[in-house]
């Protein structure tokens, strides 16, 4: 009798959920069936058209976007199984969602990261997100970045010393840049020396890389979306990686809190030890009622967002310079005009200069945006121009599609930093270029990222010239957590005289 009752309750529960799912799915279909986009097949939608990897799917999505734009549309939809995804295709279509102060919820694909990052600034929404954003914004003020730049410079000089032993032969520079970025973010976020550049076998280094790879596999492998398959094949691996990642952070936080409590850590804004992001969070702990877990969420979020994206941006910039020698020499001349033959450290004031190098980085982020796509799930019916996107639908905001709009960027595949001259940039819609997103939920660390990318690239140009015989577009970008280069970044370094 009891078993029958339990079975009946479970059955009714799932029947109720199935009813509401079917009702919402039919409503979405009714609204979206006339949206431009590729024809879909029941029940797989367009999944089988995406190809077998992220490089193929990126190419397919761009072809569909070009077809929709050629027909005069600035929005399209695709079906991931029975789940619709709507993609704005230019700045005008992006503006309503990026400017919205209410539709701030991230898409379902981000749920994979909750077990690591919790509901920190990246994944939280509504009032929690707004309060965290208000709390954290002052930590990215210009004055706070000064101390970060000193740390960036020190770790970059370690990178240069390592690369000195690699001159004259082709190497994939991407892993070296990535370890440098990881050391920078560990130092600036937690005030801790990871030293992954000298210790690439560090368990934390492996865990960061493996977790991102696991996330990529999950997002691109449809049968992993079936809970039993995931549970019996990958759950143990994920839990092991999470244990390594969170144990490391928790230990650093506990030690740091104890150092603050005993007065062991003393900061001096002129010549003494600089505050790390973690130190500022500890100082905010009482006033903002933060728990140790709240602090861990924000530190891990900063760690995650602050090294993968910047290393992608730096790697692609070095690739674009190697494959465009004229742009490289012009950037090098500008860097030499600032530093001459000196080997002095790079300071904040230096980073505020070098306008051509900044345009090089911007043009790189146009063709190869480090964050190729972000997702929002609209909670209510949402208007984009004349189109209504029904509540519960995922929006994919894809800079790698928007930035490659031939109608906005003629000869879109050519590398031309002059596109970012002020007179040309002012003729475009402000949201036709959104490498760091835009609006209320833009990237809080974009100034940090630009400083780091500019500093690392400037240092490399001071010491080396970059060479390759491969054409720029032979290196395809795969839209994953970041835009992954299919070849890595294979270049040959030569010392500059």
TrEMBL record:
Any one GO MF annotation of this record: monooxygenase activity
Domain of life per record: Eukaryota
Positions with a binding annotation for heme: 443
Cofactors, names only: heme
Keywords, comma-separated and alphabetical: Heme, Iron, Metal-binding, Monooxygenase, Oxidoreductase
Spans traversing the lipid bilayer: none
Statement: the UniProt record of this protein carries the keyword Oxidoreductase: yes
SUPFAM superfamilies on file: Cytochrome P450
Record carries keyword Iron: yes
Family: Belongs to the cytochrome P450 family.
Protein name per its UniProtKB record: Cytochrome P450
Organism: Pristionchus fissidentatus
């Amino acid at each position: 009798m009891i078993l029958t009752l339990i079975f009946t309750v479970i059955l009714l529960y799932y029947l109720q959920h199935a009813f509401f799912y079917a009702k919402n799915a039919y409503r979405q279909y009714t609204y979206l069936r006339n949206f431009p986009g590729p024809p879909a097949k029941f029940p797989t939608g367009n999944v089988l058209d995406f190809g077998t990897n992220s490089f193929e799917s990126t190419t397919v999505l761009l072809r569909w976007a070009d077809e929709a734009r050629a027909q005069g549309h600035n929005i399209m939809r695709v079906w991931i199984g029975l789940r619709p995804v709507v993609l704005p295709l230019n700045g005008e279509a992006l503006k309503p969602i990026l400017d919205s102060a209410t539709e701030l919820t991230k898409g379902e694909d981000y749920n994979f990261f909750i077990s690591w990052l919790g509901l920190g600034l990246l994944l939280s929404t509504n009032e929690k997100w707004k309060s965290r954003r208000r709390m954290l914004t002052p930590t990215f003020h210009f004055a706070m970045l000064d101390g970060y730049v000193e740390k960036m410079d020190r770790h970059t000089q370690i990178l240069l010393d390592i690369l000195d032993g690699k001159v004259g032969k082709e190497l994939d520079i991407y892993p070296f840049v990535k370890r440098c970025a990881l050391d920078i973010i560990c130092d600036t976020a937690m005030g801790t020396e990871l030293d992954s550049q000298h210790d690439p076998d560090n368990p934390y280094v492996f865990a960061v890389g493996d977790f991102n790879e696991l996330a990529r596999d999950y997002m691109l492998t449809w049968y992993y979306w079936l809970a039993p398959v995931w549970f019996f094949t990958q759950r143990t691996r994920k839990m092991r990686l999470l244990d390594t990642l969170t144990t490391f952070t928790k230990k650093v936080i506990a030690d740091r809190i104890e150092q603050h409590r005993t007065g062991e850590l003393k900061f001096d804004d002129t010549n003494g030890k600089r505050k790390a992001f973690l130190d500022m969070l500890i100082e905010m702990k009482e006033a903002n009622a933060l728990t140790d877990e709240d602090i861990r969420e924000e530190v891990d979020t900063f760690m995650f967002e602050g090294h993968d994206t910047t290393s992608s941006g730096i790697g692609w910039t070095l690739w674009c310079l190697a494959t465009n020698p004229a742009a490289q020499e012009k950037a090098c001349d500008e860097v030499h005009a600032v530093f001459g033959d000196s080997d002095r450290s790079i300071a904040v004031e230096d980073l505020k200069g070098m306008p051509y190098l900044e345009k090089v980085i911007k043009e790189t982020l146009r063709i190869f945006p480090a964050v190729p796509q972000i997702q929002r799930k609209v909670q209510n019916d949402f208007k984009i121009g004349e189109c209504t996107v029904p509540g519960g639908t995922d929006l994919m905001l894809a800079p790698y599609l928007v930035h490659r709009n031939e109608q906005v960027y003629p000869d879109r595949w050519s590398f031309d930093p002059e596109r970012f001259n002020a007179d040309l940039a002012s003729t475009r819609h402000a949201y036709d270029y959104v490498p760091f997103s835009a609006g209320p939920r833009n990237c809080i660390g974009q100034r940090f990222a630009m400083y780091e990318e500019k500093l690392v690239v400037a240092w490399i140009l001071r010491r080396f010239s970059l060479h390759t015989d491969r054409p720029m577009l032979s290196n395809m970008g795969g839209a994953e957590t970041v835009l992954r280069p299919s070849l890595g970044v294979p270049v040959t370094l030569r010392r500059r005289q």
